[in-house]
Specification:
Number of strands: 0
Radius of gyration: 19 Å
Order of helices and strands: HHHHHHHHHHHHH
Structural class: mainly alpha
Distance between the termini: 10 Å
Number of domains: 1
Strand content: under 5%
Length: 294
């Protein structure tokens, strides 16, 4: 962040490029997860992804933050965050079994609106009427996509929305972490605790990993870790108001991956609803900046 404000245009452009690349990698992570759900439980996918990714996150933390990045002052906070991440990822991966990738991704984008609602109702945040309108518009976008009451309505469409709610809680739980800990500490402990918490349950859903799928599990670990690392660094190099809206390019990637691998094409109502959600989300980001937010 400091580099962006004092170092001029170059760090900001680096942040933009890193954010775009990070979103692309996380979108690839989701596409690989969807491919793996045809043969493996979402919990097994999550477990192997985190076990494989953990050494990479440790190395990244050591390089970026030094040995202190591996030390936690509030391990219980990380344990709770890990539990939230396991729940959110399990629900999101499960939705891939039943929904097109682009539709699940679009519905997940309501997470910022849940952050606004939770902050207002439980954390005493001052939310102006314009941001409340943006939240309302975002949820209207959700209704346009899932179309409750219509013949095409699928209750499973609510799963990405529930994922967004838990993800919002995960994002807000960062305030429970000791302020002396860096984002690299959060990355290591989120990956590690999610792997540990999966251990007691994964034997009940375990199936032998086919040799031909080993590269997919390696790829999902690398893509997920690379994506989170790039996006984290993007927010350090450029203002949030510049890079945060780029997160919505994930819908473009989800549409591309969905069409290439599963011949999925979002229908008109899904595109309209996604457009409403994205427009409302960008407005919320800009409004936060105007009010002196991060």
């Amino acid at each position: 962040m400091n580099s962006a404000t004092s170092g001029g245009h170059v760090p900001q452009m680096q942040g933009v490029l890193l954010m775009c690349a990070g979103v692309a990698f996380l979108s690839a992570n989701d596409a690989i997860a969807k491919a793996l759900t045809s043969g493996y439980s979402p919990l097994q996918i999550l477990f192997l992804r985190n076990v494989i990714a953990l050494p990479f996150t440790v190395v990244i933390a050591l390089v970026m933050g030094g040995p202190s990045a591996l030390r936690s002052h509030r391990p219980l906070a990380h344990l709770l965050r890990g539990a939230l991440w396991v729940v959110a990822t399990m629900m999101f991966f499960t939705s891939f079994i039943y929904l097109p990738l682009a539709e699940a991704t679009a519905l997940f984008f309501v997470a910022p609106f849940f952050i606004t609602v939770i902050s207002a109702l439980f954390l005493g945040a001052d939310i102006g009427w314009r941001r409340w309108l943006a939240v309302l518009a975002g949820f209207i976008g959700v209704l346009v996509i899932i179309r409750p009451g219509a013949a095409t309505f699928q209750p499973i469409s609510l799963l990405p929305v529930a994922t967004a709610l838990v993800a919002a809680m995960l994002m807000l739980s960062a305030r429970w972490v000791d302020p002396r800990e860096s984002v690299w500490t959060l990355l290591v402990y989120l990956t590690g605790t999610a792997a540990v918490l999966s251990v007691p349950i994964v034997p009940f859903v375990w199936v032998p990993v086919r040799t031909g799928d080993l590269w997919l599990f390696a790829a999902i670990a690398v893509a997920g870790t690379a994506g989170m690392t790039m996006m984290t660094q993007a927010f350090r190099l450029a203002p949030a108001v510049v890079v945060a809206p780029l997160d919505y390019t994930g819908l473009l990637w989800a549409t591309v991956f969905g069409w290439i691998f599963w011949r999925e094409s979002p229908d008109m109502m899904t595109m309209i609803g996604a457009g409403i959600i994205i427009a409302s989300g960008v407005f919320t980001i800009l409004r936060d900046k105007a009010r002196g937010g991060p």
